[in-house]
Amino acid sequence: LERIEEATRFDGTVSRWEFFEKGMLARTEEDTDGNGKLDKWETYVNGALSVLALDTAGRGTPDRRFIYRNGSMDHIETDPTGNGTFEPVKP
Predict the structure, then answer these.
(1) Which helix or strand (DSSP H or E) is residue 25 part of?
(2) What are the C-alpha distances in Å from 8 to residues 12, 13, 26, 33, 87?
(3) What whole-number distance in Å separates Cα of residue 39 and Cα of residue 35?
(4) Fewest CB atoms less than 10 Å from the CB: which of 41, 48, 51, 78?
(5) Of 2, 7, 4, 34, whose CA–CA distance to 20 is shortest?
(6) CA nearest 53: which of 71, 36, 41, 70?
(7) pTM, whole model, 2 decimals?
């Protein structure tokens, strides 16, 4: 198994893709709002969520990332300008 495509809104349009490596979920991509642009990405390491990235600005690229370590959220990063440079959010 390498990839699963899902129509999460049950309208026949694929909106979620799950990618597998060596039989384990490695990453996902999703269009959660149905606008045709990806707005949610998940990265997995050894079957555990490592990074959750979101597009909260509607650009089609992530502007916020939640970084996980040992099964718990470690910190949040943001890219407010959309140039691909993420910086940690200060608590």
Answers:
(1) strand 24-30
(2) 9, 8, 19, 11, 32
(3) 9
(4) 48
(5) 2
(6) 41
(7) 0.91
Digit-coded pLDDT (tens) for 28-73: 999 999 999 999 999 999 999 999 999 999 999 999 999 999 989 9
Q: What share of the chain is helix, strand, coil (3-state, %, to 5)?
A: 0, 50, 50
Q: At 84, which amino acid appears? A: G
Distance CA 17, CA 82 (A): 23
DSSP 89: P
Q: How many residues does the chain have?
A: 91
Single-letter amino acid code for the residue at 9: R
